[in-house]
Every structure is written in C-alpha cells, then in structure tokens.
C-alpha cells in the first residue's frame, strides 16, 4: 500500500509523541524531530510505503535517544487492561453453538483488539471503551470473509499467525485456541524487537499464547509489518511453508499488499486511518476480515 499525502502528518505527529516519551532532553527532542523531517524530505514520495517510513522513523528515535522501547509502559498498560477483559471476551466466544460460530466470534475479538492503537491522528480510543468495541465488533464489519476463510482453514493442517500490537495479543489467544480446537498446527509470530507498540516475546509470556500455540517465533527484525529483506531465514522458511496466513493489523496490510500473494491470507484489522480504508475501499473506523487468496 502506497502512502497518501495525509500520511506525512501522521508520521510527524506520532514522531513528536514518541520522541517525548523516549526522552526529556530538549536538545535530543529537537534533533530527533529534525532527523524525522529530514527522513520524510528524502523519502516521502508516491512510491513509498507508510509502514516502511514508520520503521525508519522509529529506529532514528530509538538510536538517538538510546531508548529501545518508548512505548514500553503503554504496552504494559494495554496488556493489563486486556487481561481484565479477557474473561468477558472468552465467554463471548464460547457462547457460539458451533465450531464455525466460535471461530467467527474469536476473529471478531481479535479484530476488536486491533483498536488498541495509540497516537494515530483522528483515531479515538481509550482502554475503557474496549468492552463496548467487542460487543459491537460484528456490526462494524465492513468486509466479512470470515466464513470463506473458515472453509479454507478447516481443510488445512497448519496456519501462521502474524501478531500486531501488545494488548490485542491477549485476544489473539482466543483465536489461537479455536484454531487448535480445529486440529491445526499454529505458529504464532511476534516482532524480533520493539517497534511502536507491536508485540514482542515479552508480551507472549503475559498472554499465555506460548502455552496454546505449537510454536512461537519472531520475524527476526523490528520492522513494522513485513519487510522480507530483513526477516530471519527461519521466519521466511516458516512463512513459505505455511498453508494459510492470518495477518493482524494495518502494518501487515500495508506491507503484504506490496508483495505477490501465493497462498491465502486472512487480514484482520481496524481501519484506523483514511489511507488504509481507501486501500480496502471501506469507510474509516470499520472492522476488516479480508481474505486474499493469490495475486497474479
């Protein structure tokens, strides 16, 4: 997915917020913002991908401030809030009468968790709203390919699950549980290091996913979404061998659409900005369950 003009203001806005979280040093803050502006001046063009620019921006801030994880406390808070709501979400999923219904409810919870994103201009989210968001997840579905995906998944032997943010990883556990109940081997993937509020191995321990999934690995890098030139050989081999991919979040939607789809991918996310909504031809602030099989 290529950038749109408004992506520039978002990249700068999030840079400013992240810089102020990363350091209290006025001179460092100024330098970080200057370097971010320089990055956009040199790289912001119609052929750019927002997620890639986000990765470069965050690495600049991490390096200059010597703070590898500016969102550390926010991620911790998101995990704690999600854990409190987990029993309610689990009850919602287990209320399904059939395997297919429980799978769909688990997908809805996973998508609802994707609203747990901070500092996106115009995206209004507070942790206290999460319970209501889960209840309204089905009503907000703008693209609903969950049943189509279910038909493919139930005939598969394995699935690769690409995680997105901390906090929402707690609700991913419900979907991983349903996939295991369907008899699939599940490999769950987090980032190899901190980047914005994306989940890492530290979050896996909190979510209990390491006890549900058959295996938990990392991408081998801290890039937003999928950056194939940076991922580890282990991850790339696992990705290539997977029968179906479940990809959470806007970062994977922005980056995977830049590659050729050679197998089914189920994208689960919330359209938290206009460019991603435009890419998928939906309104903003809607839930997406988009199945893409292959591209020519």
Summed up, what is this model?
With 296 residues, the chain is α/β, with parallel strands linked by helices. It has helices at residues 7-22, 26-43, 50-65, 72-94, 99-113, 130-135, 146-153, 168-181, 201-207, 209-212, 233-241, 250-256, 274-279, and strands at residues 141-144, 158-162, 185-190, 215-218, 244-248, 265-270, 287-292. The chain folds into two domains: 7-65, Helicase, Ruva Protein, domain 3 (Orthogonal Bundle); 72-292, Uncharacterised protein PF01937, DUF89, domain 3 (Rossmann fold, 3-Layer(aba) Sandwich).
Class of secondary structure makeup:
alpha/beta
Q: What fraction, in percent, of the residue positions are helical? A: 40-55%
The count of strands amounts to 7
Number of DSSP helical runs = 13
Largest sheet features: 7 strands, mixed
Strand order of the largest sheet: 1-7-6-5-2-3-4
Q: Separation of termini?
A: 17 Å
Instruction: Tell me the Rg in angstroms.
Output: 18 Å
The low-confidence parts are none
Q: How confident overall, as mean pLDDT?
A: 92
Shape: globular
Write the CATH architecture name of the largest domain: 3-Layer(aba) Sandwich
Walkthrough of the structure:
The protein has 296 residues and is of the alpha/beta class. It has two domains: 59 residues, Uncharacterised protein PF01937, DUF89, domain 1 (Helicase, Ruva Protein, domain 3, Orthogonal Bundle), CATH 1.10.8.380; 221 residues, Uncharacterised protein PF01937, DUF89, domain 3 (Rossmann fold), CATH 3.40.50. Helices cover 50% and strands 12% of the residues. The protein is built from 13 helices and seven strands. It has a seven-stranded mixed β-sheet with strand order 1-7-6-5-2-3-4, sandwiched between helices. Strand 5, helix 12 and strand 6 form a beta-alpha-beta unit. Helix 1 packs antiparallel against helix 2 and helix 1 runs parallel beside helix 3. The longest helix is centred in the first third of the chain and has 23 residues. The chain is globular, with a radius of gyration of 18 Å. The mean pLDDT is 92.
């Amino acid at each position: 997915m290529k950038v749109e003009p408004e992506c520039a203001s978002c990249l700068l806005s999030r840079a400013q917020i992240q810089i102020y979280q990363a350091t209290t040093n006025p001179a460092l803050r100024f330098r970080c913002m200057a370097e971010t502006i320089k990055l956009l001046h040199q790289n912001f063009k119609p052929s750019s991908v927002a997620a890639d620019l986000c990765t470069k921006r965050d690495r600049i801030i991490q390096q200059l401030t010597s703070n590898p994880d500016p969102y550390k406390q926010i991620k911790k808070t998101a995990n704690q809030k999600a854990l409190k709501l987990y029993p309610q979400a689990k009850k919602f999923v287990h209320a399904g009468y059939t395997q297919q219904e429980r799978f769909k409810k688990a997908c809805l919870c996973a998508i609802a968790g994707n609203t747990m994103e901070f500092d996106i201009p115009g995206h209004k989210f507070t942790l206290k709203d999460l319970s209501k968001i889960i209840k309204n997840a089905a009503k907000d579905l703008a693209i609903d390919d969950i049943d189509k995906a279910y038909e493919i998944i139930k005939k598969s032997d394995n699935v690769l699950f690409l995680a997105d943010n901390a906090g929402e990883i707690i609700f991913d556990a419900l979907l991983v549980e349903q996939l295991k109940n369907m008899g699939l081997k599940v490999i769950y993937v987090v980032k190899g290091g901190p980047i914005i509020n994306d989940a890492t191995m530290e979050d896996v321990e909190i979510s209990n996913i390491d006890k549900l999934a058959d295996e938990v690995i990392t991408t081998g890098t801290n890039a937003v979404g999928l950056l194939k030139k940076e991922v580890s050989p282990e991850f790339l081999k696992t990705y290539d061998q997977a029968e179906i991919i479940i990809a959470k979040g806007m970062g994977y939607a922005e980056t995977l659409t830049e590659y050729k789809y050679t197998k089914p991918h189920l994208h689960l996310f919330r359209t938290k900005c206009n460019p991603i909504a435009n890419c998928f031809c939906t309104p903003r602030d809607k839930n997406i369950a988009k199945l893409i099989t292959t591209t020519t």
